[in-house]
Amino acid sequence: MAYMPALSYEAIADGLTVCTSSLHRFGTDAVLLTEFSGYRQKDRVCDFGTGCGIIPMLMQRQAPPQEIYGVDIQPEAIRQMCLGIAESTAVQSVLHPVCADLKNLWEDAPAGQLDLVTCNPPYKAYQAGIESQLTAQKIARHEILCNIYDICRSAKRLLKFGGRLCICNRPERLADCIDAMRQNGIEPKRLQFVAKAADAQPWLFLLEGRSGGKPFLNVLPLRIVGDGSGVTTRLEKTMPV
Amino acid sequence: MAYMPALSYEAIADGLTVCTSSLHRFGTDAVLLTEFSGYRQKDRVCDFGTGCGIIPMLMQRQAPPQEIYGVDIQPEAIRQMCLGIAESTAVQSVLHPVCADLKNLWEDAPAGQLDLVTCNPPYKAYQAGIESQLTAQKIARHEILCNIYDICRSAKRLLKFGGRLCICNRPERLADCIDAMRQNGIEPKRLQFVAKAADAQPWLFLLEGRSGGKPFLNVLPLRIVGDGSGVTTRLEKTMPV
């Protein structure tokens, strides 16, 4: 039987709670990606690999999009997302928790209809041979069940023409992410690096691509922010609402 | 008859002079690229689109590589490079000024033998229709006679396995440059953005690719440097020797 970790409930705003565990929790990267995505109220959105549902939930704090799909291949992640929603009174979007393999989309997936796909993906390239167990944590952090090319291909299928894919990743994966977007007709349009200090190597980048867009990448000024420790501190530092 | 601009001689160090004109001069970007390239004394090097030969000449200031080809399609650029060499007493590398179209390489080109190719290329994508005259300045600044894909293809042919291509460009071209390297078997390995201030948008990036390299991009801390005005100030600020 699969290991069932202890669950915690973390308030991220008045009336908004996420259910976290040691397997499906969240970090500063999710907060930064949510803000970077620049979602609008009229948007229909999908969050790939949603985990505990942190990105759909953060979007509830201010001017939420009309509809959000939260997709994860792991049933326990979707269960946590549902538990968080059940504890939250201030959800304004229509939320669809979906347990599915994003490589194949899912029945009734809104193909060609979405304005925005977000994805805080597994960061580490899959190294054949070093993974002996398919644990939940490895699935969430390594490209075992899907890689950045799968993510871009599925995003392309869901997005309307001109729709946007916003992802974050470690700087060493930038070439892979740009390549994966381009191979799937999503043009990289906006890039921001995140570092702990002005003279430090970046620890994260945020990248927006546009389905069917023309080449011209807008590289934003460096964003300086620590990678945080306590959740409350993290939220206050990175995205006060 | 072609317009012949006035020539100037600029000393870049004791015994090192470059011959500049309004058509073939140099900027901070060439100085930054030379430093970024990390050339070594045992290297055999080629500089694509060398113009007045500033990069081969800057490499003479400290621990020069053993041999440098300077290639430009414009005869007047190569003439200026030769005039600069003739005025310089402190050249230590074997220098080969070559007037050629780098798309086709040239007779006796050292295919598969070089350690390093540098290129400070035309920055602007060619927009069909807006160029009415093929002036020297347009050739140097727009992708009229060669584009970043041509540059990567020719660099690949010249480099030995593991050899490096170092280029600079405007941030909006980053996706094109990464794509062009990858399409030609040159893996982006090291990236640095250059901005005028810690909170400014970058105005340049420096990118190193390795022929046959494995994916893993090292993104360096932001380099803060103005884009300069006077030549002497530029050299002092960016690369004191």
Automatic annotation (TrEMBL), chains A, B:
A Pfam family it matches: MTS
Organism, scientific name: Ruminococcus callidus ATCC 27760
Top-level lineage group: Bacteria
SUPFAM superfamilies named in the record: S-adenosyl-L-methionine-dependent methyltransferases (SSF53335)
UniProt lineage: Bacteria, Bacillati, Bacillota, Clostridia, Eubacteriales
Positions of the Methyltransferase small domain: 31-132
Descriptive protein name: Methyltransferase small domain-containing protein
Chain segments annotated as coiled-coil in the UniProt record: none
Molecular function GO labels: methyltransferase activity
InterPro entries, per database record: SAM-dependent_MTases_sf (IPR029063), Small_mtfrase_dom (IPR007848), tRNA_Adenine-N(6)_MTase (IPR050210)
